[in-house]
Amino acid sequence: MKRRDFLIGSAGGALALASAPLSAAQRRAEATAWEIGPIIRRRNYSVGMPLHPQIDGQGWNFDFPGPRQRDGHVHYVTRATGSLRDARGIRLRYRVDAQRQARFVPQENPDLPGAISLYIQRAGDDWLARGDGAFARWYSPNSRLQEITPGEHELTVMFDENWISVMGSNRERHPREFVETLVRAGRIGLTFGSRQSRGHGVYSTAPARFTLLEFAVL
């Protein structure tokens, strides 16, 4: 099956992003609020990807690049947020549609399974991970990493769990820094990579699509 035929065949099955129906304008605004990146010093690291997802039914989706590494890879999908000071966690529901032979490959660690992680970034982060910047990005705990597989999936991670910082520390060792990131949160979302490289990109060896069904701050 050609990639175009696969995408046409799977486009009609999206579920709602929220419980109440959204207008076309609201769906478009929701999709464009999300950014496929990250963009660091004018370079977008999600090679071969559009800047925003596309609307699909009541939610949004994007197609995994591939089938080769040089065709591109998706890294971060995030949106702006305010302070998460009073929040308790994040709930994600999504669906992956893929041809049977599709394999989701981390572009930096191709021998590991492709995986999804939840993500929080402090406002004003310079991406250098120096000094206090070593605690400006946090990823959901190792035990909560989800391998990318076809089907519908749900992931709920609370903020009292042991989130991982960008330089490999964790919330248990640095609780103050994690709380500071929640208070000063600037972006939130999900990343694609592997257990070793959380947001370093994934591609698919056959046509595949990611559809966001729900993303909720609890």
Automatic annotation (TrEMBL):
PROSITE patterns: TAT. Keywords: Signal. InterPro entries: TAT_signal (IPR006311). Residues 1-24 form the signal peptide. It comes from the Bacteria. This is Uncharacterized protein. It comes from Aurantiacibacter marinus.
